[in-house]
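User: I'm curious whether this sequence folds into something compact or stays loose and floppy. Could you predict its structure so I can see for myself?
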Amino acid sequence: MKITITPSRIHGEAAVPGSKSHTIRGLFIAAAADGESVLRKPLFSEDTKACIAVCRAFGARIEENTEYLRVFGIGKRFHHVLDGADVLNSGTTLFFAAAFASLIGRPFRLTGDSSVCARSAAGLLNVLKTLGVEIKCETKEGYAPFTVCGPIHSGKVKIDCPTSQYLSALLLALPLADGNFEIKTGILKEKPYVDMTKRWMNEQIISFQSDENYTDVFIPGGQIYRPFDRTIPADFSSACFFLCAAAVTRSRLTLTGLDMTDAQGDKAVVFLLEKAGCRIELQGDRLTIEGGRLKAFSADMNDIPDALPILAVTACFADGETRLFNAAHTRQKETDRIRCMTEELTKLGADITELPDGMVIRGTGLRGGCVCSRGDHRIAMALAVAGLAADAPVTVEGAEAAAVTFPAFFETLAAVCETPPAANG
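Assistant: Here's the prediction. I'll summarize afterward.
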């Protein structure tokens, strides 16, 4: 699908959908709990549909409503009723499902789309092997499709986490196993997402010990998850596209549903934009941003890799030279986001130097043109925002990729644009 974005200011109010990261964590915990749980205002997207399918494959019964998900978990009877599942484009679901499948003494096959099957799971799979789990990869070692067959055994392991999802997967699954586990981490990227996992575990009264940076973690096994009723916070990763849209178009916009006390790392973008020259007003769960003349900024992307595409767009409209650094792990997301954003924005006239771990962007503005999402939801949405402030219309090919995490993105954008986007095939 192609969508053409005409330069436009934005205004009014937009509701932010539920957090993908919270929704997926909530689904796995609810599936493993003994009884009925309710997730209110969850994200309904391609990624969360994939997670629902996996949880059903594990034996959970899930009722879907437009406002909530009702999950009947399987508790200590944790097993699977199907022999496998397709996680589509959801890397988070792939890694979490692999860890949970290791609890079961039967083979469970996991696959995904071409993007997910090109993302390495080797770090996590090697740890599972060390703990006695049998792993069979079908095409390439360390990559999906693969089959997991437990049960997992207690032990001590060390893991590097170029994605925080490895550690979160172990933290969520291992308390259900027998025995005790000691985990030492080397590299840890995206720490706020592990903090989010820790909050869920604390709410569940799951016992584990860890230092602040998760370099040494001790997890006692034999624990249980409890049914819960919880509202899913709004997604700061999705909110970033609208925050930055207001910034680059010098517009005023209010976003609703955001909780600045939540563990989501991408809330840091709010403070980055404020330092770059935007005005921020907070009132309860309402955040109002007013864009102005933007100044170049410097951003350490270690904790906020999902924000790289939209911050790269924002930097194109900021006076001076912006540096996005410590972002090498964004090359292993749905796409190589550093390379793809450099290439796509260059088509629109951006002045960018690609670095091994980031980008240097000189704020010279953008012209119109035709760009491609590369099948990456965050690139699709970021390039749409670029069109709002470019000198001429921007056509985004593959715009449907936004549905992976934000199915209503273009409808929401149209509602706040003075000149709405137009689909053209």
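Summary: The chain has two domains: 2-16+234-423, 20-231. The mean pLDDT is 96.
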